[in-house]
Design brief:
heterodimer; A: 424 residues; alpha/beta; Rossmann fold; six-stranded mixed β-sheet; four-stranded parallel β-sheet; 13 strands; globular; B: 93 residues; alpha+beta; Ubiquitin-like (UB roll); five-stranded mixed β-sheet; 5 strands
């Protein structure tokens, strides 16, 4: 049984029957899935969720599918790390990393949204799925489509990292490289969706697709022991995940599954593509689009269609936005790797770099719980890290050469401090 | 050479405009072209505009594939043969 009521326009609240629709006929406002929370009370409980599978489908009652899941059986339920070594380095009390770089099967948060979108595509009877992507979504759509036996078209900018291109191609999708940036790809995709009867997951299945992002927030709350972090920092690209983490927190509060601690949400962008952060700084409700220029290609979206809602939710929650330079992003990638053993892509570096700046500026207090949302894996974007490390020459298999090298490496590498004893 | 520009209409707005995929319209700026469509097809205009001179924020307008917000918005000048595309804003990533 499903608790889904309708698709509802976020602007004028007109209700529509469930279908592959994406915008309201009246005002072009985005459609969002509406649920019957009253009917869930007493039925969707901590115990009912804990009894579910160790995947994002444990939150099936809060997702817009009608029958059983048809894709992503092993996606989600990624680690939540209590990052004590990083916390000590940053001088904060309680810090968590929600690590979707370990998501299955394609190592980014996109496995969440695609699991839901492909289940809906199959429910609606589509045989072809597609997406406009900065790389991670293409990777995820291609992988899930292969497993589900669907034909896939993935549309990407022509300048993506090799890891993301090969990581998608291996699954056999029809890949279309488009000259231009993501915003050009996205515009073309909305015209393609208009003409071809395909399930383009982030276009005509967008209301369902975006709901999958809530599971990132549900997991944070459950894995923290059914409570919410006081401060959550999320990357902002097209503007899907941040509002959905916030929605997830609000749904758990509505259902009485967590205490309402007025959670604050913060948006992280790269300096070279920060339309939302700029609008927040300038006190604007609407952002002005930008031409992206950053190494954080997976979040290089200059015209985020949900940017308006990101700005609204950040303001409503009492959070803020920050952006980081390319060097700050690379330094944060290295810091996370060095302190917690997690290798994220530049988007994750952006989120951590912005968290650090928000702590340093006092926007995020040092003595309250903080969660950093890491949404992608660094092994897909290794080329950006080239030249970032001291490398040593190859040696002959002789102990004398090894002994000499050991002393050299002691000079170029710092010795890590032990993991601190948890205080909380 | 014709002195009109071609306006491409998304499927969601076609019912309000006689089910046409594109129209040839005269006008020297984006605002003039869309304004004349607004006069001719008020139901279309009601969805395209928010208030008098502001485009609905969920709709993006492109001239020859460039977003008019990178140019002069509704004042962006047009020359005969230009293509104006009306595209609903769609999120992704």
């Amino acid at each position: 049984m499903s608790y889904v009521k309708s698709l509802r326009c976020k602007e004028c609240h007109t209700d529509y029957a469930l279908g592959p629709l994406t915008v309201c006929d009246n005002d072009f406002g985005p459609l969002e899935v509406a649920y019957d929370y009253e009917a869930m009370k007493g039925k969707v409980t901590r115990a009912s969720i804990e009894a579910g599978p160790r995947s994002l489908w444990r939150y099936k009652d809060l997702l817009p599918i009608e029958g059983e899941p048809k894709a992503g059986f092993n996606s989600g339920f990624t680690p939540l790390i209590k990052a004590d070594r990083l916390a000590a380095e940053l001088g904060v009390k309680e810090l968590y990393i929600k690590d979707d770089s370990a998501n299955y099967p394609s190592f980014s948060y996109k496995d969440r949204v695609v699991s839901v979108a492909l289940t809906k595509a199959i429910e609606f009877g589509f045989d072809t799925v597609g997406c406009a992507s900065t790389g991670n979504l293409a990777h995820s759509v291609a992988a899930h489509a292969a497993a589900a036996g669907l034909r896939a078209f993935v549309m990407i900018p022509d300048d993506l990292e090799e890891g993301k291109v090969v990581g998608s191609l291996v699954f056999g999708p029809r890949m279309v490289k488009i000259k231009g940036n993501y915003d050009d790809v996205n515009r073309l995709c909305s015209q393609i969706a208009d003409k071809y009867n395909w399930a383009i997951v982030n276009v005509n299945l967008r209301p369902y697709y975006t709901e999958g992002a809530k599971t990132h927030g549900f997991e944070i709350a459950e894995q923290m022991g059914w409570r919410l972090p006081q401060h959550t920092v999320s990357p902002v690209a097209g503007g899907t995940i941040l509002p959905k983490i916030y929605k997830a927190y609000k749904e758990f509060i509505t259902l009485g599954l967590v205490e309402d601690n007025s959670p604050k949400i913060y948006g992280a962008q790269a300096d070279g593509c920060n339309p939302v952060v700029k609008a927040l700084r300038e006190g604007q409700e609407l952002f002005h689009p930008q031409k992206p220029n950053t190494i954080a290609k997976s979040i290089a979206i200059g015209n985020p269609a949900d940017g308006y809602y990101v700005i609204q939710d950040i303001k409503e929650s009492g959070g803020w936005g920050e952006s980081a330079s390319d060097q700050e992003i690379l330094d944060a990638v290295k810091l996370l790797a060095r302190t917690e053993g997690i290798f994220t892509e530049p988007a994750g570096g952006t989120t951590l770099a912005c968290t650090i700046k928000l702590i340093q500026s006092g926007k995020i207090p040092r003595d309250e719980s903080i969660c950093v949302c890491i949404t992608g894996n660094g092994l897909k974007t290794v080329e950006v890290m080239q030249g970032q490390f001291a490398t040593s020459p190859a040696i002959n298999a002789k102990m004398s050469e090894f002994n000499e090298l050991v002393s050299q490496l002691e000079e170029t590498h710092t010795t890590p401090s032990p993991r601190p004893t948890p205080t909380a | 050479m014709s002195d009109t520009v071609t306006v491409r209409i998304p499927s969601a707005l076609r019912p309000q405009i006689g089910d046409q995929e594109s129209l040839d319209v005269a006008g020297g700026t984006v605002g003039e072209v869309l304004g004349s469509l607004n006069t001719q097809y008020p139901d279309f205009g009601k969805r395209l505009y928010k208030g008098e001179n502001e485009i609905n924020r969920f709709i993006n307008i492109y001239v020859n594939d460039e977003d008019i917000r990178f140019m002069e918005n509704l004042q962006t000048p047009l020359k005969p043969g230009d293509e104006v595309s009306i595209v609903p804003a769609i999120a992704g990533g």
